[in-house]
Records
---
Amino acid sequence: MRLVVDLIRGVNVEKALYILKFTNKEAAIRVEKLLLSAIKNWEAKNEDKRVEDSNLYVKEVSVGGGRQLKRLRPAPQGRGYRIRKRSNHVHLIVDSKNDNN
């Protein structure tokens, strides 16, 4: 996940969507969905502005560790191998470059 997130940090939103669409990693699909959600949230917050005119970019994105599902896989001679199915939390902020606050 961190490899995919590093590709889009600080990049224009349209370019970031193209990068995620053509990246051959499973995490790219999930990050693309998250980025689209962040854009929709920005639109809902700023109803008087258009996305095309506001020059949106990925201001901040970070990945932190999430829960782990712990399982045991049977192994020879009565042993068990531990399987850790990891998850993560992604924090993404989208902002406008020509914001006049």
---
Amino acid sequence: MNPRRKQRLTWALGLIGGVAVAMSIILYALSQNIDLFYTPSEVIDGKGRDMTKPEVGQRLRIGGMVVEGSVRRNPETLEVEFRVTDLGPEVKILYTGILPDLFREGQGIVAQGVMVEPTVMEATEVLAKHDEEYMPPELAEQMKGIKHVNPNQPDAFKDKQS
């Protein structure tokens, strides 16, 4: 083989090897930052065809409904303990911090954190789902007597200024 060709081949193989190493490092780093979503039933029973359960120490998100009567607050700190269910098994969530305004018993939530026991999660963030009962303004007006006023129209606040 020609020495010049041999040098180009060496450079090409080195470049391909470098790109492969860089891609594997990037993919490894990304896999460490993935937060998988589980329901309480999937945490207890397993997820997927192979029924894999989250391991203790794994970061994940759990979504479900807050069980009625399960919220326990420490009056001296911001520690809160509650259970989440999806009409099946329950998972205990431990959280320290201020809960969202929409958080309440019977409400849907998503908690992000780390599993500390097979059925206990220590949450770093709790998100409350909003009400899914959206109603178009026309229907709300007919059913509930709620009058929708478009604030972009010039005469929208005429009655309130007088």
---
Amino acid sequence: MKITDLKSAPEKPNPHNVSVRMLYDNENAQAVHIELKPGESLKKHITPVDVFFYVLEGNGAVEIGDEQVRVSRDMIIESPAKIPHRLLNPGDGTFRVLVVKAPRQKDKTRML
């Protein structure tokens, strides 16, 4: 059995310059923890695989394609492969999201 504690997972450098921690990474899937402080957001990007976002804490926004919706704790948002997307925290509290990619991507994410 392997257990990963969020606090022990090192922050991963990323082009978004936000807190990203890899929690799970094997040949079939990946799970990443993203924490956005007030005013932070991801840059719009395209992922070559399907992704879903599970909101762990706070309120924020998810933009997929031309649609942007407000989301909050305990919501799951599906993001299809090859569609531009990003997460945003326009609020005044912490916005924490678990991002799951399945299958694990083999091609790189494309920044827009």
---
Amino acid sequence: MINELAISLRPTTIEDLEWLFQFQLDPEANYLAAFISGDPADKTAYINKYQKLLSDPTINNQTILVGNVIAGSIAKFMMQGEAEITYWIDRKCWKQGIATQALQQFLQQEPSRPLHGRTAFDNIGSQRVLEKCGFVKIGTDKGYANARQAEIEEYIYQLV
């Protein structure tokens, strides 16, 4: 387990996007995330999208660091008038408590409540992260998952 002091968050920079782009190319991570862009390998589209998001004052984009190494990202954004959480962890960092500790830190700095999180029905790791951080499953939805080329069920979580 990673020492809690080793994990930190800082505002995401344009320079971080190179690392974060590489993380989201992982096929297994894409499968579990399910609801990804149509073409995750399109680097130009990725960089352009996130450059716009970084300048949006309604979005809180943070880069997750373990020591001085980028391990992922976490963000709050607005979707249909509701605050939503999203995070992405480099697969090399899975099952080490990094996502849970990063989300705990993020929740201390992000005041939006209620805050919602969504996971694919079979993304047990992400469901556990949300639950450990106080999110409660409040419903389900169905949506088209680009990574699976099919409509799947997603679980909706909420933190009040």
